């Protein structure tokens, strides 16, 4: 009996999908981006371990279908997150597949072009790029905020330093005036 008639009879073709390591090597995360992820995980761990009193809330769309819309959503969520940061840690839910969908579009990874072409490799790269872009933009924003905070502290220190210098010069001038007055009056 010819077993070839039983194996893959409904398969028209196949193409290999890159491994996670291959995708990661194509789209590398920077050391700073990886630190951002680790820091975020540490914050979540502290909340779950009751070391941080905030509530951890995962919020977001059912699945990502448009990277631009996802970035816009992330920016809006970030603004909300800043307003409620004392009480909540908001984390954007990012899901690229629709596992329960049996009919229709299966998600960004499976069909990134939304045309039944099933360019899975393209979808994997697009999904990774979206996450890296968001992490990197978040890292840059945090770095800019930190630079701004440091510059504000420097300005305050310079202002205090100028104020202290002015007080010192004023005291020195008063002392010189008193000394000159004492000399003029014969007391010195």
Report the portion of residues in β strands: 5-15%
Largest sheet: 2 strands, parallel
How many DSSP-defined strands?
2
State Rg. Answer: 31 Å
How confident is the prediction overall: mean pLDDT?
A: 87
Report the total helices.
4
Order of helices and strands: HHEHEH
The helix/strand class is mainly alpha
Q: Span from first to last CA?
A: 126 Å
Taking strands numbered 1, 2, ... along the chain, how are they ordered across the largest sheet?
A: 1-2
What's the shape?
rod-shaped
Q: What low-confidence regions span 5 or more consecutive residues with pLDDT below 50? A: none
Share in helix: 55-70%
Supply database-style keywords.
188 residues, mainly alpha, two-stranded parallel ribbon, 4 helices, 2 strands, 5% strand
Care to describe what's here?
This protein has 188 residues and is mainly α. 57% of the residues lie in helices and 5% in strands. It has 4 helices and 2 strands; from the N terminus they run ααβαβα. The chain has a two-stranded parallel ribbon. Strand 1, helix 3 (67-83) and strand 2 form a beta-alpha-beta unit. The longest helix has 66 residues, at 120-185. The chain is rod-shaped, with a radius of gyration of 31 Å.
Question: Would you summarize the structure shown here?
Answer:
Helix content is 57%, strand content 5%.
Secondary structure blueprint with pairings:
Blueprint: H1 20-26, H2 31-48, E1 55-59, H3 67-83, E2 88-92, H4 120-185
């Amino acid at each position: 009996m010819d077993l070839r008639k039983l194996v893959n009879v409904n398969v028209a073709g196949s193409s290999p999908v890159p491994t996670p390591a291959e995708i990661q090597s194509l789209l590398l995360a920077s050391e700073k981006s990886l630190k951002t992820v680790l820091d975020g995980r540490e914050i979540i761990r502290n909340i779950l371990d009751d070391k941080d009193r905030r509530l951890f809330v995962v919020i977001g769309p059912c699945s990502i279908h448009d990277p631009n819309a996802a970035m816009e959503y992330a920016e809006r969520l970030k603004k909300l997150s800043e307003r409620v940061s004392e009480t909540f840690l908001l984390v954007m839910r990012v899901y690229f597949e629709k596992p329960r969908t049996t009919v229709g579009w299966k998600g960004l990874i499976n069909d990134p072009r939304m045309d039944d072409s099933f360019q899975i490799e393209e979808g994997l790269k697009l999904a990774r790029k979206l996450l890296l872009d968001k992490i990197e933009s978040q890292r840059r924003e945090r770095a800019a905020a930190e630079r701004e905070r440091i510059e504000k502290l420097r300005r305050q220190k310079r202002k205090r330093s100028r104020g202290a210098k002015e007080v010192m010069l004023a005291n020195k001038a008063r002392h010189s005036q008193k000394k000159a007055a004492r000399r003029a009056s014969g007391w010195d």
